[in-house]
Amino acid sequence: MLFSSIPFLFYFLPIVILLYFAVPKKLKNLVLLLSSLFFYGWGEPRFLVFMIVSILQGYIFGLLIEKHQGTKRSKVFLTASVVFSLALLGYCKYADFFIENFNAVTGLSVPLLGIALPIGISFYTFQILSYAVDIYRGTVKAQRSLINLGAYIAMFPQLIAGPIVRYEDIANQLENRTHSLEKISLGIRRFVLGLSKKILVANILGELVATFKASDDKSILFYWVYAFAYLFHVYFDFSGYSDMAIGLGKIFGFDFMENFNYPFISKSITEFWRRWHISLGTWFRDYLYIPLGGNRVSTPRHIFNILVVWMATGFWHGAAWTFILWGLMFAILLIVEKFFLAKALKKLPVLNHIYVMFFVILSFVLFDAPSVKDAFINISSLFGAGSLALVSGEALYYLKSYVLILLIGAVGSTPLCTFLVNKAKETKAGSLLVNIAEPVVILTLLAVCTAFLIDGSFNPFLYFRF
Amino acid sequence: MSKKLKNIILIVLSTVFIFGFFIWGLIAPDLEISTSERRPLEKFPKLSISTIMSGEFMTDFESYTLDHFPLRDKFRTLKSVTAFYVFGQKDNNDIFIAEGHASKLDYPLNKDSVNHATDRFQYVYDTYLKDNAGDIYLSVIPDKNYFLAEKNKYPSVDYKAMISQVRENMPYAQYIDITDKLEISDYYTTDSHWKQEEILPVAQHLAENMGVSLNAEYTQTKALTPFYGVYAGQSALPLKPDTITYLENEHTKSLQVYDFETDSYIPVYDTQKLQSNDPYEMYLGGPKSLLVIENPKAETDKELVIFRDSFASSLTPLISEGYSKITLVDIRYLAPEMLKNFITVEGQDVLFLYSTSVMNNSVTIK
Question: Which residues of chain A have a CB within 8 Å of the CB of B360?
Fold first, then answer.
């Protein structure tokens, strides 16, 4: 089920909220678990099996790892849990990729498995992995209640597209969390803002991207319009989802980690990755980069570690060479920054932003390409390869038609609005104005989002496939 | 206003909105059709183990909830107004407004579509017309975008190229150019069609080029029902309605229109249809696969077969004066292969009369 859908907003959500707040405290996690399984099964009923099996293996191995803490058996059970999780992910997500490449190298024709990817599997698999590893490391205790662990793994607010919530961050909240008007109000505000980012910016720019792809009248200008549109489309889609997840979490009393922190204001690629998909970046740092030795190793080994981590990050996003190249592109940029550019970038106040945006835009053109060849064509077309006209009629038309949304995207991806609201709150009159305007703005956005949903067509979240 | 009060107001407003529409949606009776969009609405999906396991129920339920959401048309209007006037978008769901007209983006030129249409016309020619027909004519009706799109900087079909392609593909037909007989004011502002009261010059030009002279005068009757055309519903904008006017004289009043689908005679102007989803259907009963129109008052025995789309419905009564019998064939609803069961071509003149929008989207031509 999609957050940005009428069945979710006007059927599932009110029923779940009613049930959740009607039942006593000890039953709240059960309501969350059952509603989350319903939420997951709504889209893909057959994939509920994967989810339930994953919860059970996480639960059982978690208890076993803890029971045999400090012994070899603990490591065996951890290995079993990790292998199980990665095997499931590998089978569902990567099997056909490996078969395709095997066929390409050997010339054989091993038939593809054609497995449909269970939505959100990359997210909940990583949550279970971190849970098992953290128990092994002794940083968390195994959850005794299957309902509580199930509620954590399957929790619908963040089930489909993150953020990747670590068990250690919400272990206490699973058993002791508070609900307040303040928190619910914050949650509603955050949810509606995320919904608006998704429906009013990401979806509309998604239409522009689709129009570009279908066009026979491409030009250099149209390629750049596409590149910016796709960049903002991805950002508002994914950060919108994260906002909705965090908002829903607050309504149910949870505090999830932030997943985005205005990445486009970064002055280096290193900073960009501290601000973009934070939960994934920190996951790879803590569970892959540091175990590999991090930066406390020789320089060649350090470079090797960076390459491995970013190749894995790219591969996590999708089973295709474009994603691996996307990860490696960032690895190279990070290595160059680490060893050569870091100091210089600090001294170039405007150029550093241009440098970041330039490579981020190129990276997402690569990210969106269906093949490496297409990526090369699209990126080279940005610079006029292929005898493209500078401007085409369609490019001008669609630029005019979407310029305001692109501007909203550009401004909305900076902290300017937050800054202005906070500035206004500094005075008594400004604070009063903000307090009056906020409910009006939120309700208006909710109504407009509903209107776009009713009129619009199906438009799934991008990060479902990851 | 204190922060606490703000929080309470926000929670109450959001709760009322979400729960209000949830309950309203549950208790409101389901509608059968959307009059603004001219389509049947989704019914509550079949609930069974198989439809749940296949995901069919969930998909259909989403469609159902979208179609039956309370105040649906008002929300669609809100969306259109936001897209046009807040986000400054040039079109909404491909509908744009220019010079007071709503129209639908239709570009680029789809050469395959044009070829498909003319391939089917070629089949008709080879099978029925080649050795049997009188003179064969071709005319292409420009759609509203011909006058609106390029002028107002909207993407546009290359109409010259399209018409050239049609003419090249149909060397057996004599082309009659009507583009200079039309202007944007000859079309409804909310619909794709032309206005009957504005196309007398087109009728006269066509007739003249087909060797027929038209002399009759007409009286105009304006329908009292406001006409919200197809683009009014699609745009969901609060547009001013058009008025349907129909032209009558002694010829049109005496015409006998036989409908092969219903095996019955139907009126030239069916005023009952003014109350239907598409009032334009009042002209010759709307979409009909095969009609024969006989004119007992004709002073000639000339006959004409028109292969046509919906534009011909309002035009044909105006040229009926010049023919004793006109056969209207719409091969979007009747496969050309079946024609031999219904009509015989023996010396009649033939006119292929199609709009650019049908030529560019000819998938419906059988």
Answer: none
